[in-house]
Amino acid sequence: MGNRLEYLLVRVVFGLGAPLVALVGTNIGAGQKQRALRIALTGGVIAFGLCEAIGLARRDMADCLAGTVR
Amino acid sequence: MLAAGACYLRHVGPAYGFFGLGLSLYFASQGAGRLLWPLSAGLVRLVIAVGGGWIAFSLTGEIDAVFAALSAALVTLWRDVSAVVASGVWFRPVWSVRLPAHPAVVEEAGVMTGRRYFKDLAVGQKFGLRTADHRHRGDQGLRRAIRPAALHLDEEAARHSPFGGLVRSGWHSAALAMRLWPCQRFSPRRRDPRHRRRTGLVEAGAAGRCVARRNRGHRNAAVALAAAAWGGQGPGDDLNQHGETVQTFAPTLLVEQRTDPPTDQR
After folding, report:
1. Which chain A residue's Cα is nearest to B27?
2. Which of B5, B28, B206, B226 could hold A24 in an S-S bridge, CB 3.0 to 4.6 Å?
3. Reduced to 3 states, what is the DSSP secondary structure of residue B226?
4. Across the interface, do A33 and B13 touch by the CB < 8 Å criterion?
5. Dihedral, CA atoms, B54, B58, B64, B65, nearest 10 degrees?
6. How many domains are there within chain A?
7. What pTM was estimated for this model as a whole?
8. Contact residues for B49 (Cβ-Cβ < 8 A; gap 6+)
């Protein structure tokens, strides 16, 4: 079950990561180092927010589930 | 089953954000074309998740410990990939390339004196050469070995040639010119027997490449190549009897790299 959830996360981050590859690649190619780093950091923070939200939401849900089952 | 799932989510759920951050930085590294270290970080995560989880489970016998290891692995992934990106690996060259020396253009005499190491040379730097009279210099045996034509060596025979006199051999002047090249000025320790052979080879115009190969790996014999140009009118010129420039050289100098404190000028 956890594995499945992680697959879900991977899908989400893939969606973010594909444009990150292109953006960081073009900016490094153009010599815009700071901008490339900023893009990576922004993407990373967004991914962190999304995944953290999913993780915490699922945790709460799991608590509810566990509570109802027990 | 549900309890286990809940337990997993309770432990690992809060670490999902780090997973997202680490994975997105991994993607960004892919964009930067530097995947070696992020991939290694992924490997470390695998080791911590599997190995750490297994050890934790065998120690405690609780499933919570495994989940804790999984979550620690996710945080480690984030930490490693962030450290890699923060270390500036993106902007480092993949291989450090040592570029060949720039050609040093040598035009006229009297500007640069004293011994020089490779790093003392700069593009456009000038240094002087001694002058030599081709007619009276050079040992006949060497000339005969280099270019044994009567036209160039035997005055009597040359007088009966279509030219009516001795004609200078290009090979002879090349050999003489190479002797004038200031390799002794560039070689800081030519009295050291280890260096004598190399200096001699350079002076005789032998292939520098074979010298470099012989000295490879010797700590004190690191040499570098510097290209130089020699041409135009000037005190170091190669002139004929009418004062015209007859020769232009593009030689390569073997110049020692400084590996020890500078020695005094001998």
Report:
1. A17
2. B28
3. strand
4. no
5. -60
6. 1
7. 0.47
8. B69, B70, B73
